[in-house]
Amino acid sequence: MTADLSQIVKAYDVRGVVPDQWGEELAELFGAAFVRVTGADGIVVGHDMRPSSPGLADAFARGAARLGADVTLIGLCSTDQLYFASGQLSLPGAMFTASHNPAQYNGIKMCRAGAAPVGQDTGLAEIRGLVEQWSEQGAPEAAAQPGTVTERDTLADYAAYLKSLVDLTTIRPLKVVVDAGNGMGGHTVPTVLDGLPLDVVPMYFELDGTFPNHEANPLDPKNIVDLQARVRAEGADLGLAFDGDADRCFVVDEQGEPVSPSAITALVAARELAKEPGGTVIHNLITSWSVPEVVRENGGTPVRTRVGHSFIKEEMAKTGAIFGGEHSAHYYFKDFWNADTGMLAALHVLAALGGQDGPLSELVSSYDRYFGSGEINSTVADQAARMAAVKASYADQDGITIDELDGLTVTGHDWWFNLRASNTEPLLRLNVESDDPVTTQWITQHVLGMVRATG
């Protein structure tokens, strides 16, 4: 019987409930299909701390080796550590993780050699087609010469590479609280930060894919409450929070206040432009106005893209950009094969803070110039109709511009908002920003009134 992959193959990855929606049998077919589509004679495979991850990764490796590819298993790792291995070893890679999703979920993030993304338009649709075909007709014939499966530890090399990109040896001593959320940050942070002038206060470093303390999604404010309290209690200089697969990093200042990922994007952009003057920096269209302003002030060229890592990475490759940032706290570096790594962004923040005497709140204030609403989700029955109603209310107004690069972006003299439809849920996502909090609140309420109108 053909497997129904429509619920688990997403735009950029595979993700679903184990064993209800998929398991090791399908993982083995995904491994074979990955090799067939990429044409690889060698791949690298890693996994997170979820209970189902080791078995899924091993099954994927069996499928890949059966078709003749030599498999390097790197075991427990963060997603950006898998990207590092893919880049350093010049091999396609597969990471078994469901990021911040609950414990019963698992998934696969795949990339070509050099951490180039695999998504619907870059191989994932073909992989899905083969898995569906083979699940009905039987697994493909094994290669005459099956591949080998070997193990390799890349953590020390990953840590050394990151530290070669950002010099922290001369910073003033800092006290930093790190909340790993029982995710892969608990595996990577001790090695990456070892030997630096840092007093690290660990929180939830025990690897536990059941997430006993809180969901490993720092984008939701309730999941950083513990970190905020601990930073204040410890009198720390800052706090860092990683998501489940530790590819995203969120920052709180010495007062326990969240630092906008847009401000972090601007700060890191300024540092990267100091290293490579005149470079291009990519930002998605819901980052703050601060980002392109800071890029221009530092002699760089800002380029605006749609939301989503495939668009960022594609634009980085096309423009030769040195850095890219999203308001979801994904940070992309030319020096890291255009892939995203929250850990490298964290090192930049530590270097910037430790290289001067003021507190983090003061340092980031120059990069955080506007008042944002944050992303507000609304469940709606008809996304297109609500979007059309909002667009119509602003059409043909003097001084207002509308663009539809990604959803609906409406810009006034001192404010803007973006309204986008979710690809996977019946939601509209609203982001608003202006140069004063009253305007931000007014625009937010006005647009939400139309989005959530009944009848």
UniProtKB/TrEMBL annotation:
Instruction: Respond yes or no to whether keyword Acetylation is given for this record.
Output: no
CDD domains per the record?
Answer: PMM_PGM (cd03089)
One Pfam entry for this protein is PGM_PMM_III
Domain Alpha-D-phosphohexomutase C-terminal, residue spans: 375-438
Domain of life, source organism: Bacteria
Q: Which cofactor does it need?
A: Mg(2+)
Which InterPro entries is this protein grouped with? A-D-PHexomutase_a/b/a-I, A-D-PHexomutase_a/b/a-I/II/III, A-D-PHexomutase_a/b/a-II, A-D-PHexomutase_a/b/a-III, A-D-PHexomutase_C, A-D-PHexomutase_C_sf, Alpha-D-phosphohexomutase_SF
Record bears the keyword Phosphoprotein: yes
Domain Alpha-D-phosphohexomutase alpha/beta/alpha per the UniProt entry, residue ranges:
7-136, 157-256, 264-370
**Keyword set for this entry?**
Isomerase, Magnesium, Metal-binding, Phosphoprotein
Question: Which family is it part of?
Answer: Belongs to the phosphohexose mutase family.
Identify this protein by name. Answer: Phosphomannomutase/phosphoglucomutase
